[in-house]
Amino acid sequence: MADAATGDARILPKVALLVLSMVPLVPTLWAHAAGDLPVYFEAARAWLAGQTPYAEVRFEYPPYALLAFAPAALVSSTLREFQVAFGLELLLADVAIRAALLWTARARRGAWAYAPFLAYSTVAQLQAFWLYKRFDLLPAGLTLAAVLALSGGVGTGAGAALITGIGMKVYPVVLVPLGLAHSVRNGSRQRFLAGAALAGAPLAALALIWPLFKAVGFHSARGLQVESLWASMLWLLRDWTGVSWVHAAASYEVQGGLSPVVLRVALVVWVIGTAAAVLLSLRPVDGPGPGAIAERALLPLLALVSLGPVFSPQYVLWIATVAALLVEPGRWRIAVAPLAAAVLTRVTYPAPGYQTGLSPTLTSALVLRNLLLLGALAWLVLRVRGAVTEATVRTGAPGQQPP
Length: 403
Hints:
The protein is mostly helical. It is built from 18 helices and three strands. It has helices at 2-22, 37-48, 63-74, 79-103, 115-126, 128-131, 137-151, 155-168, 176-185, 189-209, 213-220, 229-236, 238-241, 259-280, 290-306, 315-323, 332-348, 360-395; strands at 224-225, 244-247, 252-255.
């Protein structure tokens, strides 16, 4: 009885905190139908009506995203109904993320126990405008699950979570080499590959019957999205760069002037920088627990987002969900810049003038946000290289700590 009472005393405050953190977000389920909800709804309805995705149905996301939209579309006859149904699905994903971050509190003491949860909850609340309107909570939650599974040695779960995330939104692919390398080191390679194969089999089958290459063509035609580092700098200096703020097919872009030249440079830097970050993430982690894996995982995610020619507001969720795990003794400084960047995103989106061109003040905030992410990336690179160099000097074996 005493053990049960002690367990309740530990769990009930966490449950209460979780519920309280969700209360302000529930009304957003019925708020404006913003952004891509019509795209999700129409694509899912067309598929359920018998049309072939990517061929007869224009769809820009991987197949598992369509599977995620289908349940809400099945119970909805209008966009408004779909908004609420799909919003509830995302709300459950949000609850799962928060519960997972609270679960990590069991290994911490004092105020640090709740720090990851509070960091993520603050970022999520600030993104309330779109949080339950765009499906990025699903791959972000799967990425977090993969990091936690890797830290706990659950190779099957890590492999399955990563591949499922890729099947929804491609970006978790940059974490697959890290997942494989870490699972090889801890002896769970077979289980990691088994989980990946299990989650990837339906994706491979769908790739055989649906022309997925058409989605690739859609994304390859995109220009410099206005919130990217490249576009924000060009817009800040627009009197010299000659660019215009334009509503393009998928988002707002800067076009004209120097933008075509900068786009070519951006693509090269993005590809090389992300590839280098992926390689660096393969270095052995510097300790036990989810924070060590999260630090490595954040490296390629930061490169992918901060160097890319496209940067939509929801991308900060990809970073913040993992960065929240770093809010712990010894690592919290790494999380400051990524989390601060997520806060600044709320200043610039939604914001006055977003549809016609941000003011110099808001553009400066956007540039600052992007520079914070770039600075966090540079710090992580130096940290990883410095840690390995120091370990090599002391032990003669890369990545090994002395006894």
